[in-house]
Every structure is written in C-alpha cells, then in structure tokens.
Design a protein that fits this description.
By secondary structure, the chain is mainly α. It has 2 domains: 67 residues, Orthogonal Bundle (Arc Repressor Mutant, subunit A); 167 residues, Up-down Bundle (Four Helix Bundle (Hemerythrin (Met), subunit A)). It has 13 helices and 2 strands. InterPro entries: GntR_C, TF_FadR/GntR_C, Tscrpt_reg_HTH_GntR, WH-like_DNA-bd_sf, WH_DNA-bd_sf. Keywords: DNA-binding, Transcription, Transcription regulation. GO terms for molecular function: DNA binding; DNA-binding transcription factor activity.
C-alpha cells in the first residue's frame, strides 16, 4: 500500500468509525502525519482525493472539515467513475436506471402540484419546438430532474442525475434516424406528463420505464457493429415512432 493510500484509508476509517463526524474540523497535519505515519505531501494528496469524493471540504483560511456527508452529495460523486464508463458498461446499468426512473415517476405522481405540472409541460413544449440537439438534451435533463425532485428523495435524484449525465454524452438526435427518435422521445415525455397529471403512479412508472427502454435501444446505435446485439430493428423503430 502506498503512503497516499495509507493516508486515504486512515482518514476514511476515522470518518467511518465516527471518530471524525460530519462538520468536524480534522486534526492538524502534523498530528495526522504522525498518527498515520505518512508525509505531509501524502496526507494532502489523500485530502484532495476525499474532497473530490465530497467527503472532506477544505475551507480557505479556516481549515479542512468533514463534509455534511449528505447521501445525495456522496452519491453524486459517483460521476467521477460513471463518466468513465464505455458505452457497453453504461448500457449494463440501464436495467437499474429503468427501475429507479419508474420509482421516481410513481412517487412524483402522488406528490404532483399544478405548478410543477405546468413547468413539466413547458419543458415538453420547448423540446417539441426546437431541433437543436444540445437544447433538447438540456431540456430533457430539466424535465427528468424535476420529476425526481418532486419524488422527494434527493439521493435518488442525485443518482439518476449521474446516470443521465453519462447518457447525454451520446447525442442520439444527431443519428441519421434522429428526427424519428426525437418524435418518439417527445411522445414519451407527453405520456409521462399525462400520467403525472392524472396522478396515476402505475401509469407514470410504466411510461418512465418505456422511455428509458427506448433510450437504451437508441444508444445501441453508437456501438460497433460487432458488439451490437440489441440495436433496435426497423420494427422496433416503427413501434416507438422512429
């Protein structure tokens, strides 16, 4: 184990065991270096690593503190690794994403307000009115993030945000079949919003699962031909409006 790893796991152990708690200032460098048996350079590198994971917060002029350790923040740091996944790895995670998006939509259906519903339909109308892939991607993100927010679980919303951010790296609307994909995506969004408007959790969950399944199929177009065993057929595209 390297000195940096030793410092990293030493600090992590202090937090995991409750010796250092959320919001607490960590001990001085000299004290930690002596206890962990590492140099200041190794300790500082370990602190930087934990800060990237949102576990520790360096505060200029004040010191270094354990973060508030909010679940949504810790889960959000998964983007550091999920963003590195190749497409094949991302597609493997879509089964999990379908389950989570469905749950978020069902929860949102039970908590939907007129104001939030109006905002969702504004996003849909804006998506339908533009052909700019970047703008559509941003509006799509806002639409789904709003549903997750209303669902009432910030940690779930953070995790779904990590998954969606990686998917957004692939601009499915720029594919040759992009116009058809966009029409199908617009229809999916309306199906989700209509179910939310009816406050129907089962219908909202089903519409969300269908939309994620469609996205998974469209992403297969970016796989090399020898790896693509699940790319949608022409029949699939007709069925989803593509």
């Amino acid at each position: 184990m390297s000195a940096v790893d030793k410092a990293f796991h030493g600090l992590r152990h202090m937090i995991a065991t409750g010796r250092l708690v959320a919001g607490q200032r960590i001990p001085p460098e000299s004290e930690l270096c002596e206890e962990l048996g590492v140099s200041r350079g190794s300790l500082r590198e370990a602190v930087r690593m934990l800060a990237a994971l949102r576990v520790i917060e360096p505060r200029h002029g004040s010191g270094t503190y354990v973060s508030q350790l909010r679940p949504e923040d810790i889960v959000g740091s998964l983007s550091l690794t999920v963003d590195l996944l190749p497409l094949e790895g991302l597609l493997e995670m879509f089964e999990l994403r379908r389950v989570l998006e469905s749950h978020a939509a069902a929860q949102a259906a039970a908590r939907m307000t007129p104001e939030t519903l109006a905002r969702l339909f504004e996003y849909i109308e804006a998506m339908e009115a533009t052909e700019d892939p970047t703008e559509v991607s941003e509006l799509d993100h806002r639409f789904h993030a709003e549903i997750a927010r209303v669902g009432g679980n910030p940690t779930l919303g953070s995790l779904l945000g990590v998954f969606r951010a990686r998917s957004r790296a692939y601009q499915v609307f720029t594919l040759p079949e992009g116009p058809g994909i966009k029409r199908a995506s617009d229809e999916d969004h309306r199906a989700i919003a209509d179910a939310l408007a009816r406050r129907d959790p089962a219908a909202a969950a089903g519409a969300a699962a269908t939309h994620v399944a469609h996205t998974e199929k469209w992403l297969h177009a970016f796989l090399p031909a020898d790896q693509d065993q699940g790319r949608p057929t022409d029949q699939d595209r007709r069925r989803v409006g593509g």
